[in-house]
Amino acid sequence: MTALKNDRFLRALLKQPVDVTPVWMMRQAGRYLPEYRASRAQAGDFMSLCMNPEFACEVTMQPLDRYPQLDAAILFSDILTIPDAMGQGLYFETGEGPRFKKVVSTLADIEALPIPDPHKDLGYVMDAVSTIRRELSGRVPLIGFSGSPWTLATYMVEGGSSKDFRKTKAMLYDNPQAMHLLLDKLAQSVTSYLNGQIMAGAQAVQIFDTWGGNLSAAAYQEFSLAYMKKIVNGLIREHDGRKVPVILFTKNGGLWLESIADAGADALGLDWTCDIGNARARVGDKVALQGNMDPTVLYAKPEAIRTEVGRILASYGKGSGHVFNLGHGITPEVDPEHAGAFLRAVHELSAQYHE
């Protein structure tokens, strides 16, 4: 594989020295970019974009071509590819978000679920990873990703997104045996899926635990974090002669940072409800931190964005181990010029912390 020209993202995740704080954005290939909207219209719909490796590569590269400050590319895909490969029938309704033709509601439903083969059942994702990696030609590292078992389970049991997770939580408390079987199957599936991405060329991986923060403290440990630990323990951690860093991101997980830091990953993603300096004091040198600007700051003027970037950098302080990111995905209504101002500010203001 081609040597990396810019590896500061990987170095920061491993707490090695860098010249400036590396930065990327969750959902950096997305609807805020006019070029993305044009590609999506050409593909026909979102899933056609995801399932075509050439289109997935095209939209992955778009933010990098627009913003030379980006220090990483992230695979363009969806977290719900695994449930779809398990036969749940993923589709998207306008204004409704993701939906499934089949839902999981009984132990028998769960017992019938297959564990997907990443190369046979999700080969289009592996092809996208290898295509993107080839196109990047060592420009920046490529991030692979998956949803966490708990987050995937919520969609499979609810049949789509949910405000209160009533069906999923009812199963958790009424029938913990069934929920544990579902989560175990999903943990096996995520492990083989991420390892497939690593073998295809992903140089770091992130697990998105979008809905773990909706659990109680005890339920989070048992039904979310325990399965992410299982995945981390099963991942390929070195490939192509380099370490493959692992990032865990639990939205609204700030109460449990110490437990997440003990899960074996290299870095924790933080949402914007945490103070990053406080988080650094709590986890020490155990892990790197990624985050954590409120995405809605990007609606403000560039001067205000720059001020907030400076505040977060100062809160983290001197030294490596910080990957700058938003606390969640960039939203469709953001002006692309504001995103550019954000990225430039990170590099311009962070050099003083890496002398």
Automatic annotation (TrEMBL):
Keywords: Cytoplasm, Decarboxylase, Lyase, Porphyrin biosynthesis
Subcellular location: Cytoplasm
Main location: cytoplasm
EC number, UniProt record: 4.1.1.37
MF terms in GO: uroporphyrinogen decarboxylase activity
Record pathway: Porphyrin-containing compound metabolism; protoporphyrin-IX biosynthesis; coproporphyrinogen-III from 5-aminolevulinate: step 4/4
Domain annotation Uroporphyrinogen decarboxylase (URO-D): ranges: 22-31, 143-159
Sequence positions that bind substrate: 27-31, 78, 155, 210, 328
Stored CDD domains: URO-D (cd00717)
Residues spanning the membrane: none
InterPro entries per the UniProt record, alphabetical: UROD/MetE-like_sf, Uroporphyrinogen_deCO2ase_HemE, Uroporphyrinogen_deCOase
Complex formation: Homodimer.
Role, per record: Catalyzes the decarboxylation of four acetate groups of uroporphyrinogen-III to yield coproporphyrinogen-III.
Family in the record: Belongs to the uroporphyrinogen decarboxylase family.
Identification of the protein by name: Uroporphyrinogen decarboxylase
Organism for this UniProt entry: Pseudomonas reinekei
Name of the gene: hemE
